[in-house]
Design a protein that fits this description.
The chain is an alpha/beta fold. It has a domain of 75 residues. It has 10 helices and 10 strands. A 6-stranded mixed beta sheet has the order 6-7-8-3-9-10, sandwiched between helices. A 4-stranded antiparallel beta sheet has the order 2-1-4-5, covered by helices on one side.
């Protein structure tokens, strides 16, 4: 039992009596980025919701910090697990600072308002991600990449030990994808454990220490990125023909001349 990890053993997830995936054995340790890689519609988000305690497991166990998931109170669990959703349009005209302050709510009494300590902590989270200059900016007036960094800052404001990230860079342009993934790697260096769900192998190649290949209701394989991101493994995962990996004749020459 690892007290510095999220662990699942024989986990089954789904809705009602419908099992979406089963036999899931995973571990995410502190200071590690684990990438859950699979095609759209494979049940990745269902697994994440189960790990967050938003829906009950249909079998097996989930342990966080050595304790069963259902043994944690909601406030205590929020200090263990924080969620970073996919890039999204803000529901209200929050400023970036107000948005990040929402992450402090789990540490406050009911109906309490954030005070100076919470505002200082929110600014520290923004500084950690290099976006403190956006504190007074409205969420709907900043770029998609900046908004995703603000989502990460909001999760950090919970003071959690682990981040669960649902395709944090998939809807961004290439430059913002790189910025977000660089921040994921930086958070690992600070000792956080990260479970990152994606359907893009290049995201796993940039950020992951461990890759889990996930499709058709289970885990196909898991291991270090070099082994899991091979051409053969990706063909199996995405059910692609060999020609899918062929590049135009000019590509190699253009890369060498760049």
């Amino acid at each position: 039992m690892n007290r510095e990890a999220i662990q699942t053993m024989g986990l089954a997830v789904g809705y009602g009596r419908r099992v979406v995936a089963s036999g899931l054995d995973l571990e995410v340790r502190a200071g590690q980025v684990v990438c859950l890689l699979g095609p759209n519609g494979s049940g990745k988000s269902t697994l994440l919701r189960t790990l967050l305690g938003l829906q009950p497991p249909l079998g097996g166990t989930v342990r966080v910090g050595g304790r069963a998931l259902d043994a944690w109170g909601r406030a205590a669990l929020a200090r263990q697990l924080a969620y970073v959703p996919q890039a999204q349009d803000p529901p209200f005209s929050f400023t970036v600072e107000q948005w990040v302050l929402l992450g402090c709510a789990s540490g406050l009494p009911w109906f309490a308002q954030p005070g100076a300590p919470e505002r200082q902590w929110a600014m520290a989270c923004l500084e950690r991600l290099g976006i403190e200059s956006l504190a007074r900016s409205r969420l709907d007036r900043i770029s998609g990449g900046e908004r995703q960094l603000a989502l990460i800052a909001r999760a950090l404001a919970q003071r959690s030990r682990f981040l669960i990230m649902d395709e944090p860079a998939s809807s961004l342009d290439f430059a913002n994808q790189v910025r977000v993934l660089e921040q994921v790697a930086h958070l690992r260096g600070e000792g956080l454990g990260v479970l990152m769900c994606t359907h893009q192998p290049e995201h796993a190649a940039r950020a992951a220490d461990w890759v889990v290949l996930y499709r058709d209701g289970g885990i196909l394989a898991q291991g270090e990125p070099r082994a899991m991101l091979s051409r053969g493994r990706l063909r199996q995962l995405y059910q692609l023909p060999e020609r899918a990996f062929e590049l135009p004749d000019w590509y190699g020459q253009a890369s060498q001349n760049a």
